[in-house]
TrEMBL record:
Record's protein name: Large ribosomal subunit protein bL35
InterPro entries noted in UniProt: Ribosomal_bL35, Ribosomal_bL35-like, Ribosomal_bL35_CS, Ribosomal_bL35_sf
A Pfam family it matches: Ribosomal_L35p
Keyword Ion transport attached: no
Gene: rpmI
Organism per entry: Leptolyngbya foveolarum
UniProt keyword Ribosomal protein present: yes
Domain of life: Bacteria
Keywords from the named record: Ribonucleoprotein, Ribosomal protein
A single cellular component GO annotation: cytosolic large ribosomal subunit
GO biological process: translation
NCBIfam families on file: rpmI_bact
Family to which the UniProt record says this protein belongs: Belongs to the bacterial ribosomal protein bL35 family.
An example Gene Ontology molecular-function term: structural constituent of ribosome
């Protein structure tokens, strides 16, 4: 059986937590930050878990994660 290739774009965006969940960054923290409140920007800085309906797709992209 040949080895499976990892999708490099997905490998840069997702990590596995200690409990086995797949973690991701939140959106909307890249640019146009002047008009966003400090509270909003602070919430966007936190790490989020990938929704359970998206986990199978991410696991296909990252076979060895």
């Amino acid at each position: 059986m040949p080895k499976l290739k990892t999708r490099r774009a997905a490998a840069k965006r997702f990590r596995r937590s200690g409990s086995g969940k797949i973690m991701r960054r939140k959106a909307f923290k890249n640019h146009l930050l002047e008009h966003k409140s400090q509270d909003k920007k602070r919430k966007f800085s936190k790490i989020a878990t990938v929704h359970e309906s998206d986990v199978p797709n991410v696991e296909l992209m990252l076979p060895y994660l």
